[in-house]
From TrEMBL, chains A, B, C, D:
Keyword DNA damage belongs to the record: no
Statement: the UniProt record of this protein carries the keyword Transmembrane helix: yes
Protein name from the UniProt record: Asparaginase
Organism lineage: Bacteria, Pseudomonadati, Pseudomonadota, Gammaproteobacteria, Pseudomonadales
Secretion signal, residue range per the UniProt entry: none
Protein's organism: Marinobacter confluentis
Coiled coil: none
Keyword terms: Membrane, Transmembrane, Transmembrane helix
Amino acid sequence: MIHVLTTGGTIDKIYFDANSDFEIGDSLLPELLAEANIHDGYSLRELLRKDSLEMTDEDREMIAAAVSQTSANRVLITHGTDTMAETAQALKSIAGKTIVLFGAMQPARMRRSDAVFNLGFAWAAVSLLPEGVYIAMNGEVFEAGAVRKNLKAKRFERA
Amino acid sequence: MIHVLTTGGTIDKIYFDANSDFEIGDSLLPELLAEANIHDGYSLRELLRKDSLEMTDEDREMIAAAVSQTSANRVLITHGTDTMAETAQALKSIAGKTIVLFGAMQPARMRRSDAVFNLGFAWAAVSLLPEGVYIAMNGEVFEAGAVRKNLKAKRFERA
Amino acid sequence: MIHVLTTGGTIDKIYFDANSDFEIGDSLLPELLAEANIHDGYSLRELLRKDSLEMTDEDREMIAAAVSQTSANRVLITHGTDTMAETAQALKSIAGKTIVLFGAMQPARMRRSDAVFNLGFAWAAVSLLPEGVYIAMNGEVFEAGAVRKNLKAKRFERA
Amino acid sequence: MIHVLTTGGTIDKIYFDANSDFEIGDSLLPELLAEANIHDGYSLRELLRKDSLEMTDEDREMIAAAVSQTSANRVLITHGTDTMAETAQALKSIAGKTIVLFGAMQPARMRRSDAVFNLGFAWAAVSLLPEGVYIAMNGEVFEAGAVRKNLKAKRFERA
């Protein structure tokens, strides 16, 4: 059983014409998983709807608490990419679980996006990796504490 | 020959992860027209990349000048929806041409958008309507000076 | 009020893995119209699910009867492209209505398709054209009896 | 380095209006990988364009030869789903490589498809799994020789 926690980020952004702006909407993950023929074997909980630049230490504690609370030992977390590495670091102390954070550079609701590939990649990663905390982005797996987002290259890399 | 002028608006917004924001990008119209098997019979000129809340009287004069300059007597204009009615009004004095303004409530680059339907609808409208200035939105044709955007209902209606 | 009759064709084809094949599915038109913010002002009736190469004279009589029966004087018909010109010809005798046939070269369910543009284009055509029978394809309006599908160029043209 | 071999199947089917039919086209994988920000770290070779019901023993020998020839020790194979289990079985004798077969129930070119999720899932699987031959479908990893396609349920399961 995979437990999915959604915290926001680009992946679930929606365009709101009224504000000429975007906001984080309902997570598209259930719909994307259904399109991939995955209808069970997971639970999903919406925790936050935050752009990760706005994540606070309290938010990270809330995420850590939610990870610890679930009986599932495989946990997938959607998260904004800007501070994903910080949140991963904050979860390193949790033992006995495989925890994978992922997100996207383009909203899942765009015609062209990395969101669905990243979801599939992360789904396999959380199913196959041993206990620990990881980031799964741009087709690679990184260990928490040894990863950073390269803003210029717009990708994650080993740190 | 249809002359297309792009001025910006939601229809051509792109998501920029670097800014956690949507900005107006290259117009997607040539790509959308190609997908519809339309490869010639039109010319396209990018005039502005403005959210229509930021349109000024000078911008509207620039648009009017561009409309007057083209030898084509059928002119299609992409425009943000918020002040489309004002720009339509400002073009009413131009004689001898069929001028149709349209845009979209969701960017053309989204998986679900009104953009492509609106483009097709406006393409027929500019081909069939007699001289005058019109707005073509939510599947209806409105005459300039007698139309407004109903913000709450998120649609255009007769005024 | 626009009355929409769906008769099949490429536009509504679905891929069926079980048959390694395609079949005509439920019409996607209501969903596409909703995405374009069109929720009323029309009625829709599924008449047939035929590839137009398989249309018979009896099918064409059925379509003509359905057109005559509706009280709406603006009728849109989805139809396979291969024999759309024949069906248009068969409807020429119906007076007092604006009848527009359209379809698509690629199913509406494909990522890249002419279907949505064609729907928007035809929606405006049926709203603006005077009484008569027309085909609206590849961004042009053709009169029934003076149009054919150019198989090599994959587009409709004046005959 | 991941070596990708494409052999056909539903995943790369294109709709051909001329034949009123779906045929296997150029593989969409390079475009999908680019959308996922993956531009290097892999090589791709188009081997076949076959619906897997038409795969022969000679085809399977060709695939096995191509797998053995590559210096890469991580090989991803796109394949039709109907006989994917047979081909996986035929590759079991190849030692020293992680070989993952995957495909899709809906063409990657459809608006709604499992193709992109499956690609991401398989990309992680081939990166993380130990030597051996596997099928990665519907969000699960199966070992060759212990898997079959459940036609009725339209999914792969342990055999």
